Every structure is written in C-alpha cells, then in structure tokens.
Amino acid sequence: MLAALACGCTSFPFRSSKSSGPISLVPPPGVAAPAHTLPQPTGAPQPSYVDADPRQLEAGLARSRQESQLMQDEIAALRDQLASTSTQLAQARATGRPAGPVDAAEARQPAGIMAPAEMQAALTQLSLSGVESRLDGNVVRIEIPSDRLFEPGSANLLPAGTALLTQVSTEVGRVYPGHFLGIEGHTSTEPLQNASWGSPHQLAVARASAVFDFFTSRTPLKQGQLFLVAHGPNHPVVSNATAAGRARNSRVEVVIYPERAGEGVDQPSGGGL
After folding, report:
1. Domain range annotation of the chain
2. pLDDT tens digits, 218-255
C-alpha cells in the first residue's frame, strides 16, 4: 500500500475526483426553474394599430357614429314627449280639468252615457231641501226617509210625501232627463208595526211599488225608465243600534243611472223586484 501511495496510482479508490468544468444552473428537461430565475413582467402589452386592417378600423368608426346618431334621436324624441306633456299640463291647469289618461277615458265613454264627473257636476244642480243626494260610484242616490213619505208601518203615502215625490220627479227630469231610475225600498231592523206584512222585505216591496205607481201616474216619469228593487234591512247606511240610525235606514232611494232610456221610453217595462 505504501508503495502504491508513493507511486501515485490513479486507480486508488479513496481518491477524490476533480471537476473538469463549471457547474450548470439550468434545470434538466421537465423540471421547473426557480421562481427567482424567471424573467419578471414589465406590464400589460399595449394594443398596437400599426398592423391593423384599415377596413376594420373604418367599419368600427362607422358603427360608433351610427350608435351616436341613434342616441341623439332618442334624446330628441324624449324632448318632444316632455314638451307635449308640458303643453297638456298647462292646458289642464287653464281649464281646471285633469289631463292625460282621464281625457282618454272620457273620450272612450259611450254616447248617451254620462261620465262620473258629469254626474257629479249635475248633482250640484239638484234643488231638494231636506233630502240627501250623493254620488255613489257612477250613480246618484237620492235618499228619502220613509217617515217623510208613508204612514207609520204602512205603504200609504202621506200628503207631504206626495208633494216631496213630485218635487223629486221634477228635479230629476230637469237635471237628468230620460235617465234610467231605480226605486229601492229599504227597511231597518225595527219590528214591524203592521201584522199584515210577513217580513221587512214585503214592506220594502210595497213602499217601492207605491213610489213607482205615483211616479208613473202623477208625474212625467215613464215606466220604461223605472225599475224596482227591494232590499229590506240588508243594506243599512248607518248602524241600527240607535233610534236615529234605524230611522235613517228605513228609506226609499231614487237611484239615477248614467244611461238614458232612449227609444221606447214611453213603453211599459213591467218593472222588476
């Protein structure tokens, strides 16, 4: 062994080998490089139109101009609509009438039928002292207390009652000429004073019929524009808990409808209950 050491044998197994070249930091294929060795981005790439097709640029410019023109047209249309609305509002304020949809609804109102606004305006022309008149939807109701028309517990008209019905027929014919009229009989929940009536409805029918007969025989009102309804105690206007409430609920209502009877108004209609 000493001899071998002395001779410098190159095949000595414990001798360290020397590197013959520099060490490479490039990873072998399939192995990712360390992050710090990768090139860092310097910013998003900026679009370049140097190599763009001029025809594509012209088409895009034309589309932009077309969209801008459409937007200008829409703005002009909105301005015209605003001007028209302002004009309608100014006219409505000048005439004291609502503008817009209300006018359109009135324009669609069938001929010969009064609109609710017209019914309300005509209502103010009725001259009936001590009788309540009111607009109920599209009809006018004239409320006449039974104690002003009939003897207690009966369907016999009082002299003052006939005078009142004459006044009602005159005013209705003047303000609402030729309109359909409903004669509605109402009673309260107070027990019947006359045993001849089997129910409050029978008394309501008899009283409505008495008014119908008076109108058709003693006034210019015609059978063709009248009809009867008997509600009995089913439709009170106030509570029946007090005597005053029961007195008001016992009534006859003359209901004026917006429709006119028109042709054949002089012919008997037969009425209805």
Report:
1. 107-260
2. 999 999 999 999 999 999 999 999 999 999 999 999 99
- The token duo for 35 is 């992050």
Burial readout 204-242 (b: 16 or more C-beta within 10 A, e: otherwise): bbbbbbbbbebbbeebebbbbbbbbbbbbbeebeeebee
Whether domain 107-260 has CATH 3.30.1330.60: the reply is yes
- C-alpha span between 236 and 40 (Å, rounded): 91
pLDDT surpassing 90 at residue 12? no
